[in-house]
Amino acid sequence: MLLSLVILFTLCALTGRCSIRNGVDRSVIKSLDLDSYMGRWYEVARFDHSFERGMTDVTADYTLQPDGTVSVVNRGMRDGQPTEAIGKAKTTSEAGRLRVSFFWIFYSDYNIMAMGPSGEWALVGSSSPKYLWILSRKPKLTEVEINQILMLARDRGYDTSQLIFDKSRVD
């Protein structure tokens, strides 16, 4: 029994497929209508990371491709200049988990952990607790919506005080 637990823990740690790691619950939503997830999302808040550092007015556009993959185009402003990153995503065996790549063959988990009742917002993480995004279908979220999302993120173990909010996205 002990050997089984050690093997399970080791596999979980090596594959990054544990739902809870480093005290953070990264479990994903159980069902996702991929077609309805397509379109434009506005980035309301994120944890700081080098590839988006200093950016504002960030959007992500998702387009389902004929082969079942998803085209991902992230746009924003950095130092007054427009910037764009083009990537691709593929589905996995878990409805709320995609694998996203912006560089060659290197993919990262894109975990859709929660969504608004009508799909109006999404709480997204990755295989690492260092990444967290709040996305919205509309350019701004209300304070009530943001507080609801923050509560969900905190309940999952995220330190929401580390979120960087795009001030133009908050009502």
Provide a short characterization of the protein structure:
The protein has 171 residues and is an alpha+beta fold.
Averaging pLDDT over every residue, what do you get? Answer: 88
* Name of the CATH superfamily: Calycin beta-barrel core domain
- Give the proportion of residues in helices: 10-25%
Number of discrete domains: 1
> Over the alpha carbons, how many angstroms does the gyration radius reach?
16 Å
Distance between the termini: 53 Å
Biggest sheet strand order reads: 3-4-5-6-7-8-9-10
Question: What would the principal axes of the Cα set say about the shape?
Answer: globular
pLDDT < 50 runs, ≥5 residues: 1-18
Task: Furnish the topology, listing elements before pairings.
Elements (H helix, E strand, L loop, with lengths): L1 H14 L4 E2 L2 E2 L8 H4 L1 E8 L8 E10 L5 E9 L2 E11 L5 E7 L2 E10 L5 E5 L6 E5 L6 H13 L8 E2 L6
Antiparallel strand pairs: 1-2, 3-4, 3-10, 3-11, 4-5, 5-6, 6-7, 7-8, 8-9, 9-10
Polypeptide structure, described:
- The chain is α+β, with helices and mostly antiparallel strands.
- It has one domain (23-169): Lipocalin.
- It contains three helices and eleven strands.
- The chain has helices at residues 2-15, 34-37, 143-155, and strands at residues 20-21, 24-25, 39-46, 55-64, 70-78, 81-91, 97-103, 106-115, 121-125, 132-136, 164-165.
- Strands 3-4-5-6-7-8-9-10 form an eight-stranded antiparallel barrel. A two-stranded antiparallel ribbon has the order 1-2.
- Strand 5 and strand 6 form a beta hairpin.
- 22% of the residues are buried.
